[in-house]
């Protein structure tokens, strides 16, 4: 297991190098002069020259790439063209918002998706099964931005139950400690902020959770159905064990493995989905930041944030693989 | 089933707990901006999102009055100018203090001018090192150090500042009214250095409280504001960053924000139909045009240009594609500018007249192909921008409508576009035969519209258009300080541009803002420089 972990860890190096190469070439794939593209219609030649120099566009490509990698390794993700702020600092500052949102979404997805899958599998082809499969299909196919706008419109504008966006109301003050607002509210014992941040979290998390909920529900159902048809389940049932025990204790254990894998994969998709969700709900995380930076053609941010997310994605997959091995002792790795 | 009951119970509890939040203080004004500010140091910003905020915190020597571009006193109470127009003497208001308690006196004003002007000034040099530039100072005053039009700024006494120019500049006071030339506290600037961008200290009606990155900027009323009679009516101002325009409108409808900018043209009707909401149109300061390349032989013939002008149904385009906020343009300056020529007679929309003119010019079969001066022949291509701008909110649809109009007059064009940076580059190099573009004014002065385009005859950026007598008039107007005389020259210039069909002006747009009905006193300025201290909530 330990050896496997090391081997598996080493495989991420070429992956990350590949990602860095793609991210690096972003800037060279833009038609026209990237400096002009960033500065727009009123760019003065002097400012264009400055930005070109700042980006190192005047050097050979291979040199530029090496310099880029060297800086990344030293933790220097460059600085925003627009604001001049270091990219890494803002990444760290904004990441908690995205984690909070994605965490809430994955929590909803597991809490709703797994039971939905179990019920569907146990009462296969029942009305509930049909309904939940239809919902899963809808969940997978529904564009997040549309769903997000509908949620905001219905719960925010029509019912006025929940805010249409943001992380905190303007009537609440919260002193950030970790930038995880729920945690910060608890740490600073601020019930108003806790309430406000939870209220603000519901709709975006719901919008973001639709796809993972659907995927998890489908996977739980399929995998549980497969397990339920196996001999040891029949043995357990013939022993006279109650159905809940058979399903929860015996079947789910095995059925959960593939569910775990897809959940891991969903984390990556959540980060991508966060770009839309955060934009629709003005959620000040990395997704909204990437969107704004693409629009402002602030390439150092786009590059830095993409590389960061890719790294997270690779890491989450690594952890999932390792967990997989831990959960299922039968699996061995060569 | 028990779990279902439990979940339902929890949901009910949640709704009870989450239900209506605390009642918001009525004196907090929440504005939905289209994005996050870049910086809050007025001297280095160029964008409207940042300047909307800095305008509440800072003030300059002069300002624009209400909804106009008329220049009136602000921190300077009055001024005089020498007969030759090169020496301006400003009398400052007494007892004005920055938010940090330091006085706004002549020394502070001189300090600000020097910071803008000298690249070696410590608070200028540090910005350069951080990759920021004093872009507008360079644009409005010709450059820095020796290149600067402003050559000397002296404190005559604590309330008098004398500014000496190399040559007279007509738009001088209008330039000083721009947000860029608002006065920052020298003490604060020296204390914070480049971090002044996140710790702004001015003299304005609101003082800075906090900038929550990615979320909002919070301001509060300046209780010691010098203008007691016109002090802020609000206690707090929150400017929230809401990127998505549908969400911004949803937040407004939900009453979470009080006002917003960047209403989609399609949403204007929705807002107008809502009894709780109101639309305020910003007086126009933006003109969209169609420009010619004068290295194309066919377009060198004025009759061909006239034919194109007669072929375009401007009213049809404005009515159909501007969501009710556009206006037909007949000259470069938008109507609120004081150099606007009211009695200029526009080209009448008449496809038959266009055909006639083409025939006279030797194209009885219409025009589909062009010849460049170097002999290259190619189909006539009409270029449209790939991005939406205030003057052309939906360029592709507008280009299609223009092409359809031209086709009716026998002018066949192929529509084309490209990446925005490439588009600007091709335009700069004079490679576009016929194209769409426009301008949004910076300082409310006619010079800012006309001279930028027509003061350099033959420039590739302007399609090699060369009209030296027009340039001469514009340069002459630039040097005068008498507004009446200048206005006369700008009106003359507009007539010359029209008679020569130098380019065709299509539309002015009045960008819409949306508010809750209970918001009173919001005055939208053409230059987007509005002050929230006139705003109140009822």
Q: Could you list some keywords that capture this structure?
A:
heterodimer; A: 334 residues; 13 helices; 76% helix; globular; B: 538 residues; alpha+beta; 23 strands; 33% helix
Can you lay out the helices and strands and say which pair or pack?
The complex is a heterodimer of chains A (334) and B (538).
Chain A: H1 2-29, H2 34-39, H3 45-55, H4 61-73, H5 87-122, H6 127-141, H7 144-158, H8 181-187, H9 191-228, H10 231-238, H11 243-280, H12 286-295, H13 299-327
Chain B: H1 2-18, E1 28-33, H2 48-57, E2 62-64, E3 71-73, E4 76-81, E5 87-92, H3 106-117, H4 122-129, H5 135-141, E6 150-157, E7 160-165, H6 172-176, H7 186-192, E8 206-212, E9 216-221, E10 236-241, H8 245-253, E11 259-260, H9 267-273, E12 277-281, E13 286-292, H10 297-300, H11 302-311, H12 314-321, E14 326-328, H13 351-360, E15 369-371, E16 377-379, E17 381-383, H14 395-408, E18 414-416, H15 420-428, E19 434-440, H16 446-454, H17 468-479, H18 483-499, E20 503-509, E21 512-516, E22 519-520, E23 536-537
Parallel strand pairs in B: 1-10, 1-11, 17-18, 17-19
Antiparallel strand pairs in B: 2-3, 4-5, 5-7, 6-7, 8-9, 9-10, 11-21, 12-21, 13-19, 13-20, 14-20, 15-16, 22-23
Helix pairs in contact in B: 11-13, 16-17, 17-18
Residue windows where pLDDT falls under 50 for at least 5 positions of chain B: 19-25
Report the span from N to C terminus of chain B.
51 Å
As a percent range, the share of strand residues of chain A is under 5%
- The strands making up the biggest β-sheet of chain B line up spatially as 8-9-10-1-11-21-12
Largest sheet report of chain A: none
The succession of helices and strands of chain A, N to C, reads: HHHHHHHHHHHHH
Q: What is the alpha-carbon Rg of chain A in Å?
A: 24 Å
- The chain-level structural class of chain A is mainly alpha
Low-confidence stretches of chain A: none
Helix coverage percent of residues of chain B? 25-40%
Estimate percent helicity of chain A: over 70%
Overall geometry of chain B: globular
Compute the number of strand runs of chain A.
0
The largest pleated sheet of chain B is described as: 7 strands, mixed
SS-derived structural category of chain B: alpha+beta
Please tell me how large the radius of gyration of chain B is. 26 Å
E-strand count of chain B: 23
Q: Provide mean pLDDT of chain B, rounded.
A: 92
Most extensive interface between two protein chains, with residue counts: A-B, 59 and 52 residues
* Number of helical segments with 4 or more residues of chain B: 18
């Amino acid at each position: 297991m330990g050896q496997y972990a090391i081997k598996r860890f080493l495989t991420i190096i070429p992956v990350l190098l590949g990602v860095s190469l793609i991210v690096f070439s972003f800037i060279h794939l833009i038609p026209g002069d990237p400096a002009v593209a960033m500065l727009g219609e009123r760019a003065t030649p002097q400012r264009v020259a400055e930005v070109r120099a700042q980006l190192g566009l005047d050097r050979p490509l291979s040199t530029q790439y090496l310099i880029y990698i060297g800086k990344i390794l030293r933790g220097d993700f460059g600085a925003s063209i627009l604001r001049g702020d270091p990219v890494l600092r803002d990444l760290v500052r904004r990441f908690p918002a995205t984690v909070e949102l994605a965490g809430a979404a994955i929590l909803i997805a597991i809490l709703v998706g797994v039971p939905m899958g179990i019920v569907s599998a146990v009462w296969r082809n029942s009305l509930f099964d049909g309904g939940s499969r239809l919902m899963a299909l809808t969940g997978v196919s529904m564009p997040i931005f549309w769903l997000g706008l509908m949620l905001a419109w219905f719960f925010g504008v029509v019912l006025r139950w929940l805010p249409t966006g943001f992380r905190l109301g303007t009537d609440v003050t919260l002193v950030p400690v970790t930038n995880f607002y729920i945690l910060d509210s608890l740490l600073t014992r601020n019930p108003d902020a806790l309430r406000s941040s939870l209220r603000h979290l519901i709709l975006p998390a719901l919008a973001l959770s639709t796809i993972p909920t659907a995927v998890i529900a489908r996977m739980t159902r399929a995998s549980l159905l497969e397990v339920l048809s196996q001999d040891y389940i029949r043995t357990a049932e013939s022993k006279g064990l109650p159905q809940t025990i058979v399903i929860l204790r015996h079947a789910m254990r095995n059925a959960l493995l593939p569910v775990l894998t897809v959940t891991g994969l969903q984390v990556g998709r959540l980060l991508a989905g966060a770009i839309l969700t955060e934009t629709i709900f003005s959620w000040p995380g990395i997704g909204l930041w990437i969107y704004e930076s693409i629009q402002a053609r602030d390439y150092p941010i786009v590059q830095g944030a993409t590389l960061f997310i890719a790294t997270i994605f690779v890491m989450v997959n690594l952890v999932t693989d390792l967990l997989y091995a831990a959960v299922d002792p039968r699996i061995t790795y060569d | 089933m028990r779990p279902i009951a439990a979940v339902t119970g929890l949901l009910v509890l949640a709704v009870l707990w989450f239900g209506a939040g605390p009642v918001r203080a009525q004196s907090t004004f929440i504005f939905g901006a289209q994005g996050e500010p870049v910086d809050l140091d007025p001297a280095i910003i160029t964008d409207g999102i940042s300047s909307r905020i800095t305008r509440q915190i800072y003030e300059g020597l002069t300002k624009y009055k209400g909804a106009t571009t008329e220049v009136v006193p602000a921190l300077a109470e009055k001024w005089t100018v020498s007969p030759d127009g090169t020496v301006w003497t400003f009398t400052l208001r007494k007892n004005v203090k920055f938010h940090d308690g330091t006085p706004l006196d002549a020394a502070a004003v001189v300090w600000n001018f020097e910071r803008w002007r000298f690249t070696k000034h410590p608070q200028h040099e540090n910005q350069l090192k951080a990759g920021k530039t004093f872009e507008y100072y360079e644009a409005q005053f010709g450059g820095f150090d020796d290149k600067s039009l402003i050559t000397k700024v002296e404190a005559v006494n604590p309330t008098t500042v004398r500014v000496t120019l190399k040559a007279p500049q007509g738009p001088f006071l209008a330039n000083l009214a721009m947000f860029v030339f608002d006065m920052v506290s020298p003490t604060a600037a020296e204390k914070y250095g480049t971090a002044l961008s996140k710790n702004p200290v001015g003299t304005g009606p609101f003082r800075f409280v906090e900038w929550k990155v990615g979320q909002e900027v919070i301001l509060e009323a300046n209780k010691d504001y010098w203008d007691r009679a016109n002090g802020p009516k609000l206690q707090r101002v929150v400017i929230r960053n809401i990127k998505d325009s549908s969400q911004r409108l949803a937040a407004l409808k939900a009453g979470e924000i009080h006002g917003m900018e960047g209403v989609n043209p399609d949403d204007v009707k929705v807002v107008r139909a809502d009894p709780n909401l109101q639309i305020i149109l910003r007086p126009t300061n933006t003109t969209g045009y169609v420009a010619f390349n004068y290295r194309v032989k066919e377009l060198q013939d004025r009759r061909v240009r006239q034919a194109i002008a007669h072929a375009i149904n401007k009213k049809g385009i404005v009515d159909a594609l501007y969501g009710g906020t556009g206006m037909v343009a007949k000259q470069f300056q938008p109507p609120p500018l004081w150099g606007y020529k009211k009695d200029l007679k526009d080209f009448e929309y008449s496809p038959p007249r266009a055909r006639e003119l083409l025939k006279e010019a030797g194209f009885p079969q219409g025009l589909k192909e062009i010849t460049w001066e170097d002999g290259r022949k190619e189909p006539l291509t009409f270029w449209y921008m790939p991005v939406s701008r205030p003057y052309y909110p939906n360029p592709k649809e507008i280009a299609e409508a223009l092409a359809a109009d031209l086709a009716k007059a026998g002018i066949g064009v192929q529509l084309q576009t490209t990446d925005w940076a490439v588009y600007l580059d091709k335009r700069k190099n004079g490679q576009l035969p016929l194209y769409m573009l426009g301008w949004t004014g910076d300082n409310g002065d006619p010079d800012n519209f006309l001279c930028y385009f027509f003061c350099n005859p033959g420039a590739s950026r302007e399609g090699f258009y060369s009209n030296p007598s027009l340039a001469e008039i514009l340069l002459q107007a630039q040097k005068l300080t008498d507004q009446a005389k200048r206005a006369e020259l700008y009106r003359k210039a507009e007539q010359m541009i029209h008679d020569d069909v130098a380019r065709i002006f299509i539309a002015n747009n009045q960008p819409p803002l949306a508010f809750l009905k209970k918001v009173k006193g919001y005055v939208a300025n053409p230059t987007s420089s509005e002050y929230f201290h006139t705003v109140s909530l009822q």
